[in-house]
Amino acid sequence: MDASQLAELRTMYVFTPIEGQTWGLAYESLKARLLERDPDEFIQIQEGGQVRGSAMHYGITLEGEELEGYARVRPEGISILDSTAQAAANFVGWLREHVVPEGAAMTFNTAWGLEEDLPDAAVPEVTRPRLVAAFLAHLEATGLE
Q1: Could you give the CA distance from residue 90 to residue 95 in angstroms, rounded to a whole number?
Q2: Of 64, 16, 76, 70, whose CA–CA distance to 43 is shortest?
Q3: Tell me: the pLDDT tens digits for 57-105?
C-alpha cells in the first residue's frame, strides 16, 4: 500500500493515559469542553450497569471534518471513530489543549492494532506532521496490505 492510500485509511483511534496514571476524565468536564467549541455538538451519556459501565458518545468538528467518538471513565480513555491519521493528529492537539492535564502522557492504539494484539504506544510530543507519521507507521505495523 502506498503512502497516499495509507493516509486515506480510516479506523478508530483510542487514546488513554499511560498505565498507572489518570487524566481525571469526567463526562461533565468533557461535555463542557465540547460545548465550548460548538454549543450544538452531539453529546449523549449512556449510563451502564456493572458489566458494561457508562460511556459518552459525542461529535466533534476539527478542521472542518465532523467526527464521532466515545469516552469512558472506567477504563479511562477517549476514542475517535472512522478517522484518518491526520484527523487523529488534529484530535490529539485538541486533547492536549483541552482535556489531558499539562505534562500528562497518553498512549494510543487503533482498532486494527487491537485486532493484531499490538501494544499501546506512547503518543509522541512532536509536531503534527511527525505525529501523523507515527500514526501511519502504526498502521503499517498492523500488516495492512
Answers
A1: 9
A2: 70
A3: 999 999 989 999 999 998 999 999 999 999 999 999 999 999 999 999 9
The CA-based angle 1-129-42, given to 5 degrees, is 90
Pairwise CA distance, residues 75 & 34, whole Å: 21
pLDDT given for residue 49 in this prediction? 58
pLDDT per position as a tens digit, 115-139:
999 999 999 999 999 999 999 999 9
To which residue does cell 505495523 refer?
A: 141
- Cβ count within 10 A of residue 118: 15
How many whole angstroms separate alpha carbon 57 and alpha carbon 72?
A: 9
The counts of H helices and E strands in the chain are: 5, 7
Query: How open is the CA angle 79-106-82, to the nearest 5 degrees?
Result: 25
